[in-house]
Structure formats: C-alpha cells, structure tokens
Amino acid sequence: MSVITAPPISPVLQSMDQISINTIRTLSMDAVQAANSGHPGTPMALVPVAYCLWQQFLRFDPQDPVWPNRDRFVLSNGHASMLLYSLLHLTEVRAVSKDYETLGEVSVPLEAIKTFRQLDSRCPGHPEYRWTSGVETTTGPLGQGVATSVGMAIAGQWLAARYNRPGFEDLFDFNVYSLCGDGCMMEGISNEAASLAGHLQLSNLCWIYDNNHITIEGNTSLTFTDDVATRFIGYGWNVTRVGDANDLEMLARAFRTSQDTKDRPTLIIVDSHIGYGAPHKQDTSGAHGEPLGEEEIRLAKRNYGWPEDKKFYVPEGVYDHFRQGIGKRGKQLRDAWFARIAEYRKQYPQLAEELYRMQHRQLPEGWDRDLPEFPADSKGLATRESSAKVLNAAAKNIPWLIGGSADLAPSTKTRLTFEGAGDFSAENYGGRNFHFGIREHSMGAILNGMSLVKVRPFGSGFFIFVDYMRGSLRLSALMELPVIYVFTHDSIGVGEDGPTHQPIEQLAHMRSMPGLIMIRPADANEVREAWKVILQLHHEPAVLVLTRESVPTIDRTKYASASGLARGAYVLADAPRDNPEVILIGTGSEIALCLEAYEQLTKQGVRARVVSMPSWELFDDQDRSYRESVLPPHVKARVSVEEASDFGWSKYTGSEGHNICIETFGASAPLKQLLKKFGFSADNIVAAAKSQIARHGSTK
Ligand SMILES: Cc1ncc(C[n+]2csc(CCOP(=O)(O)OP(=O)(O)O)c2C)c(N)n1
Ligand SMILES: [Mg+2]
Question: Is residue 6 predicted with pLDDT exceeding 90?
Fold first, then answer.
C-alpha cells in the first residue's frame, strides 16, 4: 500500500484549485462519518476529475439547472453520491419546481450535507432525480447511469438533427459525461449500451472510468481482468488514459480530446487511489462502504494540509471560486442560448413552439385528431395490429414521439410507417424509428435517458423479456418518467413458442411496481383509448400489453363504450336493471371469452355482469363510489379470467371468488390446444359462475 501524502500546509498556501478539491473531499468524509454510513473513498479519489470537468468544461448554469442545452453529468457510480452533493452545494445549484421553474433557494444547503442519508434530506444515500435539483438521473444500481447517458446523448443528437437550422447550427450541441467505476464496467447493461453508442458514433458522449482496481470484496484481480481499453476500441470508441487522478492538466487534456473527437464516443480511463490520502484505508476496499472513522479522518485531513478539527469546513473564497468558474461560464452560455431561442422563435415559430411544449411535457394541439375508430368485427385483429394503427396516427401529430424495438418491430408492430418517419442511425440522427438491437436492459435505460431530455420515447419487445429490463423499468417508475413500453405476445396466446415465451407472472410483476401504469386492452377500441390515456401521462411510465393473436372488435352499440378504459375498469355488459348476481372480470384477450360466457348465462336466465379491467392501477385510482358501482360489494359471486398467474386477483374477487388462471409456465402447442389444456373456455367460465352463485347465494 503506497500512501501519497501531501506536505502539511495550511489552506491559505494552497491554490484555489487544491482548496476546492480538498473542500469536496473533506465534506464527503465528514458527511459519511456523520451519517455513520456511506462511501467516502471514491469521492476522495475522484474529486479532481469531477472538479476539472465542472470548473473548466461543463456547460452548466447552476442558477438554471434545467436549461435545455446544458451538458449533462451522470454519476453512474451512485454510491459516490457525496461527490455530486458537494459539487451541487459548492456551485450553489438552485432548486427547481415540479413545473420546471427555478426557485430562489439552493438545491443542496450545507444543512442537507450535514444530514446526508437522513429522512427527508436532499442528500439521500444515492442520487435521486426529482428529489434533488441538479441530479440528472437516479443512479445506484450499477451500470444504469452510463446506459442512461447513452439515451441522453441519443436524444441530444436527435434534437440537433431536427431543430438545428441554418443560422442556428448550435441550438442543440450538448455533451453528456458519465463517471463510472469497475462495477459499472462489469455490468452487462453497460456493455450493451457501449456497443450501441459506438455503433451510433455518439461523439457527444464521454465516459470516465475510475480504474481503481477495488470493489467491495477486494481487489479486482478477484473477478475482473478485462482489457477495458481494447474492449472499447472494439466497440468503436476513442480511448484515452490519465495515469493519475490528481493530474489536472492531463485530465483537462483528456476532456479536450473528447470534445475534439467528432466521430465517436470517448472513454477516459483514469487511474485513481480509492480513499486517497487516508493512511490506513487508501487503495483498500475498506475505503469503499463505511465511514473512515474519526482518527483516520483526522490523519487524512492532516495529509491534505487541512485543519484537523474542523468539520464541514468551506474555506473562504471557495464559493466565489466556483461562481467565477462554472457559474460565470454557465450563466453566459445559458443567457446566450435563451437570446438565440428568442431569435429562433421569430424565424421558426412552429419549431420553437414544439420545443416549448416538449420541454414542458405538453402535447401539440390536435394530437388526437386522427386516432382511428374500429368497427365491430367478430374476427377482429390482434391488439398489436390495432396499436400499430393508433400509434402511427398519433405519432404523425406528435413529432417528438420517437422510439423503436429491441429487434422485434416486425412482431411488435411499433414501426412508424408514415412518410418522413425515417430510421435513426449514425447517418441520420433525425430518424424516428430506433433500432436498439437485442439489448432489452439497456433499451430501458436509454429510453429513460431520452425521456430525461424530454423527448417522448417508446420501446417495444415481447412481454416475456420484460424480465430482462426490470432494472431499467423500475428506474422509469422511480424517476416518474413517462416512458412508454409496448409489450406484445402477452400470454399463452403466443402458442407454439412455448413456456420460454409465455408470460405467466409478468402481469403480477408489473402490477406490484409503484408508479407504473399497465394497460392490457381487450380490443381495438380499447387500444385506442389506452394510447389516449398513455400519451397524456406526465409522470408515470406506461406498459401497454398486447396480443399476438386476433381478438374480436367488440360491438360497442351492443356493449358499453371503450371510453370506460380511462377509469381502469368498467361495466362492459350487464344484467337487467344493473342487478347482477355474478360478476365476470377479465382483461385483454380473455374479455371475448367472458362475453361468450355472458351470452350463455343470460340465455339460461343467470344475471351476469362483465367487467373489462384493462388496468388495475387506473381503477384503483378511482373514487370509492365508482369502484363500488363497478364491483358492488354485495355481489360476492365473482370470477376472474386471465391467462396468467392469479397472484393478486383475490383483491377483486375476494378470497372466496374463483380465478381462472395458469399456475405453471405454460406449454408449447397451438393456441387452441393450450386454451383447452388450461381451461380457458366459455363453458368453464359459465360453470365457475354458477358454482360461485351456488356458493355465495344469489342476490335479489
Ligand atoms: C447492480 C448493482 N449490484 C450491486 C451493487 C452493490 N454495490 C455497490 S458499490 C459496489 C462495488 C462497486 O465497485 P466499483 O464500481 O469499483 O466502485 P468503487 O468501490 O471503486 O468506488 C457494489 C457491488 C449495486 N449498487 N448495484
Ligand atoms: Mg472500483
């Protein structure tokens, strides 16, 4: 263990660079110590890297941290959160309201740093978007940040291609920087994302890899001997190295190299010493996830030439130093941009209006004017097919609704086919059809990054593969981003592909996730209503779950209007005088079966009601009187029908209700055989309804 020690000198004899760096180091150490938990070592090591970037390069105005053309900084190694919080504090980043208005107060006051990791502190354990202004994305699950940064860079290129015009070539030209560690480099998601970023030649992207050879269990020699540089060269990146994380000059040179590289992303590999300056913990995993201890902090401060007894000490001149650096540069750039956008508005009023609405998460006027109505049709069409029609009709009128698939667009039908939609590629950054490749997990993170830049992204795949992207999807929900996920092949309806492709527990998974809206529409008109709801969401990701196989288009002159979908569940068919003795509740493709059973029951004099319940979340959001009008509490005879696990259904059917469901992983066979094997038939529903009435007794 070699400890690099600085001579003990007083702060006044250090350069402002050095004082600022050591202020961040000591704030980080003190905060982790006060919290008695957290990660001190990585902030201590990486401060010069972040300091050099922020103070010299980052085009970021602390007074307006949501200015659209700002450079983005993503701390992918989110455990080093104190590094980011210290920067936000010292640069005096302002708080921003939910409506994207800057408020007077600072985002991270010193008090928040002193209460790092405590309830309601603006400095939670890991950086959280929406909670702390200036945090560009939530990080903590390793690999997510870097993958999200790719989405931000993609969105930057798309905005530039669409909105930069003659005389305004630099309206959008922001760079995206992401700091990451060994963990991020090992995670599969970062490999997926780096591969796509290289392929797309995203020159506005720069990752900085903290090559400190340490993870939690010890030295990386235990697990990680990749030649990272060669790997990234293989991905088509520009790779450069900085041999000493304290070398501000070499760091600046590396950032300049990144800026000058116009044809590919850049990886800067920085060799650092975790816990830099702590005599017993430097270069050990002991500096990773626990406080240094009072004595070690004292010794580290001595090494930095810092007053050993001072805590949360910000020497005079430090705030001003940042004001003169990033503050002044950022404000000038930001003000100049807003002056330019005023000019732009005069010359390109329509485009400027688009930008305004997009940045405020509003929709264009008349966005829904072309949405199709579908006539009743007993043969019908697959909901993925009706979705294709609705999506295309909406996207034509919402220019920033853009997205694609993880190599399944021909199956998920999410391709935008109207004239001018185009394909996004290194040669055409203005295209609206994205090809994420077979990279579901990073597709989710990339969609998050795109959404953070405020375009409206959608991504699609087979519903079963939601398992591959749960980590990213969870962050969409946690960050309250209106990302749209379109998942098709939603049940055993996929037939012959068998258990590996038949979602069983995925509906239950999605329903258990806070903040997510899932909709599984029953027919083409419910699909239209579903898209209407989804496109008007501001703070929730949506999961649209669609069939591969045809479903009848319900006759809405006979049964209730599909507009009921907006309330999550509605009475589709009812007993005379709205007085049912049994309720059949279904979703998606199973509604057709419920209606068949309903007709049989009605003929036999049984008073049945069919409730179409495409979205639990939307229904649960309704007031009690509506919910009880759909599911009257006194009607206890209830049958749910869904080709999936029954997990959670007793919430609506009661513990004495009957759930027609699947308790295995499905099977490989033509759909007809599967329906028989698993008991999805009108006859079975009828039988279950009758036995429910027998069990609970009929209502008057
Ligand atoms: C997906 C994921 N798995 C595991 C963890 C737990 N974890 C947090 S930090 C860390 C080690 C990271 O090592 P490295 O990125 O090299 O960070 P350093 O200790 O060098 O700062 C682990 C395993 C996590 N945050 N995310
Ligand atoms: Mg490491």
Answer: no
Please give the distance, rounded to the nearest whole angstrom, from the Cα atom of residue 183 to the centre of ligand 1.
5
pLDDT at 8: 46
DSSP string, 510-527: HHTSTT-EEE--SSHHHH
C-alpha of 198 from chain center: 21
CB atoms within 10 A of CB 104: 6
* Segment holding 696, helix H or strand E: helix 682-696
Instruction: Report which DSSP code applies to 586.
Output: E
Which numbered atom of ligand 1 lies nearest the CA of 186? 15
Strands 608-612 and 570-573: antiparallel
Whether the Cβ atoms of residue 549 and residue 566 lie closer than 8 Å to each other: no
Burial label, 114 (beta-carbon count in 10 A; 0-12, 13-18, 19+): middle
Instruction: Provide the token pair at 6.
Output: 């600085």
Q: Count Cβ atoms within 10 A of the Cβ of residue 316 and give its class: 0-12 exposed, 13-18 middle, 19 or more buried.
A: exposed
Q: Which secondary structure element, helix H or strand E, spans residue 486, and what is its range?
A: strand 484-488
Q: Check: CB of residue 499 under 8 Å from CB of residue 538.
A: no
d(CA 389, CA 302): 68
CA 633/CA 611 separation, integer angstroms: 14
**Orientation angle between helical segments 682-696 and 590-603, nearest 10 degrees:** 60
Helix (H) or strand (E) holding 441: helix 440-452
Ligand 1, CB within 6 Å, residue ranges: 42, 77, 79, 140-142, 181-184, 187, 210, 212, 214-216, 274, 288
What is the rounded CA–CA span in Å between residue 49 and residue 63?
Answer: 22
Distance of CA 610 to the CA centre of its chain: 35
For strands 456-462 and 484-488, give the pairing: parallel
Helix ranges (DSSP H) in 36-97: 41-52, 81-90
Q: Report the pLDDT value the prediction gives residue 4, as an integer from 0 to 100.
A: 52
Helix (H) / strand (E) containing 178: strand 176-180
What does the pLDDT look like over 585-620, one tens digit per residue? Answer: 999 999 999 999 999 999 999 999 999 999 999 999
Interaxial angle between packed helices 41-52 and 248-260, expressed in degrees from 0 to 180 and rounded to the nearest 10: 60
Token pair in block for residue 313: 């000490």
d(CA 50, CA 20) in angstroms, rounded, equals 11
| Cα 512 to middle of ligand 1, angstroms | 26
Distance between CA 441 and CA 472 in Å, rounded? 6
User: In degrees rounded to 5, what are phi and psi of residue 698?
Assistant: -80, 155
Q: How many Å lie between the centroid of ligand 1 and the Cα of residue 78?
A: 9
Ligand 1 pocket mutation pick from 216, 226, 281 by most atoms within 8 angstroms of CB: 216
DSSP string, 253-310: HHHHHHHH--SS-EEEEEE--TTTT-TTTTTSGGGTSS---HHHHHHHHHHHT--TT-
Residue found by looking up tokens 């597709």 in the block: 443
Structural contact between residues 638 and 658, judged by C-beta atoms closer than 8 angstroms: yes
Tokens for 367? 């966005």
Active site residue 440: yes
pLDDT band at 99 (very low <50, low <70, confident <90, very high): confident
CB 150, CB 193: distance < 8 Å:
yes
Q: Which two tokens stand for residue 209?
A: 């890899």
- For residue 76, the ligand closest to its alpha carbon is 1
Three-point CA angle 210, 216, 220, nearest 5°: 60
CB atoms within 10 A of CB 279: 15
Strands (E), 15-99: 72-75, 94-96
pLDDT, one tens digit per residue, over 625-683 is: 999 999 999 999 999 999 999 999 999 999 999 999 999 999 999 999 999 999 999 99
Distance CA 654, CA 652 (A): 6
Distance 210 CA to ligand 2 centre (A): 7
Q: Atom of ligand 1 at shortest distance to CA of 45?
A: 21
Quote the pLDDT of residue 13.
Answer: 64
